[in-house]
Amino acid sequence: MVGLDFKIYLKDMSRSEDVARIAQALAVADEVLARFTPGAIDAVQKENGGPLTEADTAVNEALAEVLRTGNEGWLSEENVDSKDRLSKARVWVVDPIDGTREFVNGVPEWCVSIGLIEHGVPVAGGVLSPPNNQLFLGSDETGVQCNGAPTRTTDTADLIGAVVLASHSELRRGEWARFAECSISIRPMGSVAYKLAMVSAGMADATWTLAPKNEWDIAGGAALVQAAGGRVFGTKGKQVRFNQANTRLDNVVATTPGLCEQVKNLLWP
Known about the structure:
This protein is of the alpha+beta class.
């Protein structure tokens, strides 16, 4: 769909097998998504109220075929959770389409997200944004690439004018009203995983959630932000741990290092 050569992003990567598997899985997902047209696809409502399309299911199956092994755990939005993953040292955490509402509505703010967790820590990730022709890949050993070019978080050190990506739904509910006089530049964006990937690539300075999210929303992007030199944390700076029995995360913040303390003071004065 996006016309990217996934193979060229694998050069000089010491965590080669993990990043290669992520790239391969995203390439297969890209092929699957080419069968569907965003904005012209039917959706049903899941029990939790979120939309589900045939594309979500098809991409999930494709990711599982490439990534799943007997020695690694698996956590996906589109599979019934198996607590067997809790005993695994390595766990794949995936969201076949993060931002399904945007996908259904033809809004180019959705992506495919893959995160690799080792002992509760995100160590490698990949985010594919087909409508924006962007592929983000990285790991704790290799740094981050966007479409093959090395990238890092910004060096912004002042919240005044900092670009912060916000949830459409949180903005509609008025949850960001308290930041209106903070002189930050708030930009609405759909997919959480895509927002995190953009921070990792220096396309924004920070993003945070004010409503609970699940691990599959966060894992891939969190791996990228940290690999790119950024910071990811929870409420009041608490470390975010993955592959937990309860997959819900209350707050997640991703920011360039220079804004870390300022963001904490803004959110939890």
